[in-house]
């Protein structure tokens, strides 16, 4: 499974990229606003740090303007993936951009039928938001299973399932068990994946015993 990091914080991305775990990045208008920085500057910097796909979202809602925004964002770097909302205008824009060889991420997906439409429009990635579904009492992971089944039923659909709105390490584990292609993780959730109380406890015991030997490796 590929890991993307879900942030527009360049320092976080640089730090996590050094672990070798970051295959790509997703941003959205809210994350850019949170960074307090110029969108184009941030996007360029992220693309220089991470060679994999970097999602940059259009903010227009009408097809022609979305297309113009998408083309402008795609000029920033070859690894920019254009994020469009799951609307008919977004799907039309997806069709044109993907037809021209630009990677497209269809975002704000909340149903299996929406995922099917995005795949037919040529999306590189579909982003189902599991956390926001859980928030309203639905089962976000059930949607991931449904999309996996549908895409597997039709091998001509090559869109990758990019699990978004991940809130906990449990979401990540379930997404991996289902066979999602990519998960985009907030930095704090990515960091939590390495943690286990027994790892900490075991390491402390090893170090205490090692100290008793009086030896040094270096
Ligand atoms: C994905 O591309 C989105 O940026 C993100 O995962 C949304 O997550 P949220 O529901 O926590 O805002």
Keywords, separated by commas or semicolons:
218 residues; alpha/beta; TIM Barrel; eight-stranded parallel β-barrel; 11 helices; 8 strands; binds erythose-4-phosphate
Description:
The protein is of the alpha/beta class. 51% of the residues lie in helices and 17% in strands. The protein has a single domain (2-213), classed as TIM Barrel (Alpha-Beta Barrel), CATH 3.20.20. It has 11 helices and 8 strands. An 8-stranded parallel β-barrel has the order 1-2-3-4-5-6-7-8, surrounded by 6 helices. The longest helix has 17 residues, at 197-213. The radius of gyration is 20 Å and the shape is globular. The mean pLDDT is 98. It binds erythose-4-phosphate (E4P). Erythose-4-phosphate binds next to helix 7. Residues 6, 26, 28, 107, 127, 129, 131-132, 164-165, 184 line the site of erythose-4-phosphate.
The number of E-state strands comes to 8
The rounded Rg comes to 20 Å
Name the overall outline. globular
Class from secondary-structure proportions:
alpha/beta
What string, H for helix and E for strand, traces the elements in order?
A: EHEHHEHEHEHEHHEHEHH
**Helix fraction by DSSP (H/I, runs of at least 4):** 40-55%
Can you name the CATH architecture?
A: Alpha-Beta Barrel
The biggest sheet amounts to: 8 strands, parallel, barrel
